[in-house]
Amino acid sequence: MQALTSFFMCLFFLFSLLRISAATALVTITPSGYLRDGETLVSVGGSYELGFFSPGKSKSRYLGIWYTFSTDAVVWVANRGTPLGDSSGLLKLTEQGVLVLLNSSNSIVWSSNSSRIAGNPISQLLDSGNLVVQDGKETNPDNFLWQSFDYPCDTFLPEMKLGWDLVTGFERSVSSWNSTEDPAPGEFLARMDQHGLPQFFVMKGAKIQARGGSWNGLFFTGYGYGVREPNPISGSEYLTEYGYGVREPNPISGSEFVMNKDEVYYDYRLENMSTFSRYVLNTSGVIERFTWLYQTHSWELALFLTGPCESYALCGPFSSCTINSNSAICACLKGFVPKSLKDWNSGYWSDGCVRRTPLACSDGDGFVKYSGIKLPDTSSSWFDKSMSLSECRGLCWGNCSCTACANLDIRDGGSGCVLWFGNLTDIREFTLGGGQDLYIRIAASELDHVKKKSNFNKRQLLAILLSSAVFLMGLLIVGIILYIRKKKLRCEGHRRKDCRDEYLREDGEEMELPLFDLTTIAKATDNFSSCNKLGEGGFGPVYKGTLLGGKEIAVKRLSKNSGQGMREFKTEVILIARLQHRNLVKLLGCCIQKDEKILIYEFMPSKSLDFYIFDQEGQKLLDWPKCFHIIGGVARGLLYLHQDSRLRIIHRDLKPSNILLDDNMNPKISDFGLAKTFGGDQSQANTNIVVGTYGYMSPEYVVDGIFSMKSDVFSFGVILIEMLSRKKNRGFRHPNHDHNLLGHAWILWIQDKPLELIDKTFCDSCNMSEVVRCLHVGLLCVQRVPEDRPSMSSVVLMLSSCDVLPPPKQPGFYTERSIHESPTRTLPCSENTFSTMMIEAR
Hints:
The chain is of the alpha+beta class. Helices cover 23% and strands 28% of the residues. It is built from 16 helices and 50 strands.
């Protein structure tokens, strides 16, 4: 077989030499020479030639490159959209190193370009099929004055790059011919999309036609790696490496995907120089791979990327496409159901699927592993090259908006991290191999359902259902008896009013709350001793208590003249009882005996955040890693309130004293007495009574009484800037101006001196780029116009990624105060110790 191959190769090269000698052929073009119609420029090895041709039955003349042994295989065209009307075309090289194509009237029909002037320019055709202009004998591709590989047509050759130069913004893409007789750019374009994690697209105009997926270190995930499966359409074999139609082993030995700060591109190499293979984007938008067969002296169609699963997002979000003759093409992912069952059953899948069970944020969610997957569309994904898979899953699990994760690179056991947020679109399953692992986030109940094995027959299943029904009925009867007995005993020990008050109502629905006896609370706090007092807010004091078993608690006792009535009390109890998140304080119970309104929380031994920001002793305990950890925790807690809880919740009084810290310095947002809930479609509301704390309230809230999620974003930004500077926004004074802390931060930012704001105690422990990024995020959060401020989901991503951030605009309240104001003057209310229900907020 080896001898036969060598024989054909010898015949091929002999044929090439005879062809070159029989025609007028050039090796180079210099300023003193030219190339006429009828002449050709041949590569050194004799594989390619450049000349004039007419495609098909067309009479128009074009300048193009083809194989010397196959003149009908044109791989590049210079004047694609400006054909010559006759055979008088002339190609010349100017003294400046520019190729120009002239017509019969010496008008320029096409020309190359060059940013440099050469001293001794020459043009030649390389044995890779690349037409280049170089200075003298320069052979480094990076120093070419111009090359045709930078301007592909419909053919993607070995060593050609497909992608972007990120420094100059230059893109290399492949476009189809308009028709088989018209090489003008058609309606299909194969390109590398650089949004999110870069991936390969075939576009039809502005619409995505097909998606090759992202690069995983070995291949594009949409093209697998070459496992044979039966073709359900034709019955013949194909390779899932590419979809339908692979007919022989892949001659490509080396593929390279480069992604750095300067460029992102893909190229490939062949096994040996005697093999010829090319990719072509045909006029129908299908990518084909042709391989030259010496035995038959013809091109063999080795691959064509087509089939139903190649259509972008055919099955809609949260579903997968699978070529399997035993089942439907589209199927919902585990834990998801069709959005419209009627449309789904009729074969209209584009609406996709929705979750059967909503996510419960990090507590109670899990991951289901899919293997052999074409990863979802990564246009809006986030990625990191250094993370491990366990770190990646942990990061996704800790972000309530994250829906899936995977390794960025599957080589050597896997490395890197890709996170998806929102819908998962254009997933494909390779049934016999290919693709890679994907971890999709689902609710815990769905995870348990997935893990169960459906190996019961109907008789066993019926027996289990009947026995379970009997068991549950017995439990229900026992529970009702115990409930009635317990309620009767309680009512006998309290007044009728106390018995009624054991239930709070929300929208007419009774909610039983965990109740503590007043005697128990009084004993735990030593009868509300001042020695156990932790602090006092706008609605009353907070005490430390110890229950009989030794459990420490925090007791918030609402004062009778606090202004917080039963409505505010209900709000705080109902909200905190229903909210479950690691960065929200946990409510243990309440007490509403007699005239008391008392809330019992988990005890936070590390006090509140204001102690570590503004107290000189506390500042020594807060280094930068702990500070950054707290910033991220508060951001995730707010994201849960705004987006992932059952109702959108606006805190309205976010400040350092309302952020408590546990033993591990994990932050927990507290004090929901002023919080407001929004419906799913509601984005803002008005109030006639402005509540909150001066220095943390947004401008639109203070002036017009309008509050929204962006009000909390503003408060978060203020806290972030206070943490970095360790100074209070309200009461801040500077010798050179009368701005508040936000104004001072803005002045330093626009003067490009952000580090002057950072407290010097951070210098020994901080990552300066990380600190400046946090300041940047803080200034984005406190912008005057609410629409300019980012959402908390964007804030979480900004803090955890290295993407370029938009420039901030002027912050709210950027006006100098009167020089007659004094921070020591008597104020009608305190600066930052409690909240108020009056029109004048602090």
